[in-house]
Protein 1
Amino acid sequence: MTIDRVGGDAVDVYLDNNATTRVAPEALEAMLPYLRNQYGNASSAHSRGREAKKALDLSRETIARVLGASQAECICFTGSGTEAINLAIKGAVSARRGKGNHIVTSAVEHPAVLNTCKSIRSLGYEVTYVKPDSTGRVAAGSVAEALRADTILVSIMHANNETGTINPLREIGTITKERNVLFHADAVQSFCKLPVTVDDLHVDLLSISAHKVHGPKGVGALYIREGVTIHPLIHGGRHEGNLRAGTENVAGIAGMGEAVRLNWPALERNSRRMMALRGRLEHGLRERVTGVTLNGHPDERLPNTVNLSFENIEAQACILELDRRGVAVSSGSACTSGSGKPSHVLLAMGIPCEACRGSLRFSLGTLTTDEEIDYVLEIVPDVVSKLREASAPAPA
Ligand SMILES: *Cc1c(COP(=O)(O)O)cnc(C)c1O
């Protein structure tokens, strides 16, 4: 990383780690053999096949261990975090046909959850969307109130991708356990940023994704508690414990395992570092720029995320100008940005439309440096004031 404000190398400050992260060199190295000589099919009985199978087993054991799963077989590899979420929700309700047709989720979920719920509504399932408070937190009490006798599944995200707000999963999980309702958590954003262990959180199903934790894109995993039955979505061979047919992405899964092995022991250290840098960014911007408000919970928040609304600013224009100056940030989620629609997350928190349009998400990473934060603190005030001047009505 070089920051050269005079000329020469382009500035490259990546503060969009909630959208995706750089593949760790170690994860890439762990993948390469399976893309070169070790091309075996993990289902083959010969040594090439067993080599591939070993790579899958190793990643499965690593992920099971860090999540505190009772056995490696609780981990099912998928083609993305989104697929893990689809498998959890559709697979769970399909296996509970006849026991009820009501699902509880929240209004601030990722589109992977919201649109999966939308698709099963057309099959006759009813969905209750719990509203968050003004910090984006989904209270356990609100989830409890939404439960009915025919509720078969609760799906609540651990940490929000747009605001970083952390939900009280342990409290929610205590309630679902008491009521004997299955509990799925989208932990894609919290995994490797917060301690995520399935018994502490009382979850039955939990989704994670490799590319948010310095692994490759196109690999995810679903944790399924021992004894919990769900139905597969993809039918074919007997892969992944009969839950996800299709020859496994051996290289991708090896890369995911290595990324987790790297990140997990460094979790606390990385969290502290990112939180310190984020604090400097957040306070620095609020000091240097007028009309800035925080979207999200002040404390119960991912260590790397800060979402700020800038008065009288169009986030899209700001993003493009920051990009021109070598800084990558986002407005809300990558999945909805570009659609021109205000964020469903911020709207659900009761933030006025106008403030939603001027919201920027800075998501730091384990590689973010002090110099990068200095640079951002220097250019954002300038970009904001130029955009405000340009949009101000001309003097009469
Ligand atoms: C990125 C993300 C997903 C989707 O994961 P993919 O692997 O990109 O499909 C789901 N939920 C949250 C909260 C996310 O941030």
Note: The chain is about 40% helix and 15% strand.
Protein 2
Amino acid sequence: MSIKENLAQVRKQIPDNVTLIAVSKTKPIEALQEAYDNGQRVFGENKAQEMRDKHEVLPKDIQWHFIGHLQENKIKYIIPYVSMIHSVDSFKLLKEINKYAAKHDRIVDCLCEMDISHEDTKFGMSYEELEQMLGNEEFKSLTNIRICGLMGIGSITDDREQTRKEFRNLKQMFDNCKQTFFSQNAYFEHISMGMSGDYDIAIQEGSTFVRVGSKIFGERDYSKK
Ligand SMILES: *Cc1c(COP(=O)(O)O)cnc(C)c1O
């Protein structure tokens, strides 16, 4: 199936209140352009330089969402144009993002990545770490970032009930966090969860951003450079 057909099929399954992020990591410019030509405007990448290179050559009305682990020395590659960073996994990183955002005179929208799978290979904060960060006086002084919600990556598993449990847990953390820290802030409204294999469950459990890669662009090939 073509990117156009894949996109049409995925879109049919996504309600209006959920935003589809086309995860284009490792895919060539032509693939992104094809998705763009079929109306896609929101793209997700997980490597800072790759995102910068794609941003430089593709249309400027694309919204770029950064979804990978972000190293502090790479923040500079994405700060001028990124529309949301989904993967804030430490207070230290958030402070650095704030610093660069201030330099560029921007307010950068961020999500906090929560550790919902407890797999060693994944990043993310515990709820306790999140609470400590949001309750910290220094957090309140960060005026060039905005925390717009939470993000999570489910376990790699065929057990859909396990995945559902993890997503439900993320929704619960979102609700608690909203009530405790953001009850007056309308912009704290997003839950980024769900990928090609589980976005249907994620939507049922309250996702507002689904990050779908292989189901749109086909399997990724990491063997060639
Ligand atoms: C690669 C990636 C996705 C998309 O994965 P697919 O299974 O191809 O849909 C979503 N979220 C993150 C954080 C990713 O790194």
Note: The pocket of pyridoxal-5'-phosphate is lined by residues 23, 25, 46, 67-68, 153, 195-197, 211-215 (CB under 6 Å).
